[in-house]
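Re: beginner question about structure tokens

> Can someone show what the tokenized structure looks like for a real chain? I only ever see the sequence side.

Sure, here's an example I had lying around. Input first:
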Amino acid sequence: MHEVARHIGDDERRARLGTRHALAQPVADTLASARAMTCLHATEPASVHLSAWARSGATRDEVDEALYVDRSVVKQLAMRRTVFAFPRELLPAVWGSASARVADQQLRRMATEMEAKAVATDGAEWAREHLALVRRLIEDDGPLTTAEVRRALPALDARITRGKGQYQADVAVAASVVVTLAATGAVVRGENDGGWKISRPRWTGAAQWLGEAPDPLPEAEGYAALVAAWLRSFGPGTEADLVWWLGATKSAVRRALVDVDAVAVSLDGGAVGWVLPDDLDPVPDPGPWSALLPALDPTTMGWKERAFHLGPHGDKVFDRNGNGGPTAWWNGRVVGVWCQRPDGGVDVVPVEDVPKGAQRALDARAAELGAWLDGDVVRSIYLSPLAREHLAALG
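And the corresponding structure tokens:
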């Protein structure tokens, strides 16, 4: 049993969420948005822009400037084989911990696939050889898209099937090699060879893109840095939350909690949560606030145990694979979802009755988002079940 310092109930957790996640009061820009959240989800490219808008009002051009000009926010494959947009200063921690774990998983999977496809008898050796080939190619001749890598190295043109159901796709071996290499931090997603809603990165050597190639932190230090950042953004959270978010082992999380001197607190429902040692002061209610967040936003997805902000609405907001769609928030709780009509207008669809003032605030945010999108329609594959029902009813 852990000695708990104090109790932090759901009301205060929601107050912390509004304050820490830059939703009750906006922050300055895209970088500040990413720092507030530790990182922004980037599986769908548009989510980075929409998440930054929700927290700072950043325009699409301003988000692109942070990603591709200032390079203060960098996309990186990391926890749970998911792409995130990290503040640049966190990259060494990520490379040494969560990304290194993913790179090892990707390498072993690729080796198995190459043997199963009879591309190689020794899949591990084939993978190491082609990772080295692609790294030299990108560092010498890059930036290059994955298609350009394929053309330069025809041996990578073989295809493999990934995923299941609606997420199943045939991908070129080149994509597997490049993504595995990127997980190591040797190459990064450089300029995007497409619009803001399309992921078509020009892969670039890390030193070329960043001006230097900082060494990854040792694994334990990397996990400690990530856990400290997560607790600052999301604490209190449980051990289960951290294991899920990091995609790590319990032992790695427990070691990191010790390394950052995390303090135990009790939560509503009887669970034990963790906060940083300087984060025990009560956080006051920031006052009324509303927000419209995109699919897979880190506020929606930041915890495994979400009852304090999601309530009973999981089956309306999350798909069967656990992916959260675009959400509507009032005072730290998910009270609805949002979606775009074919004409580009934004509809908020409630999952529960809300006060009139909340409805007016959400309608105002929908109008602001519609103006920001300016007729551009974002098609998310992670649309919530309730939003799909709403759009189907519209015909």
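Each token stands for a local structural state, so reading them left to right follows the chain. The radius of gyration is 21 Å.
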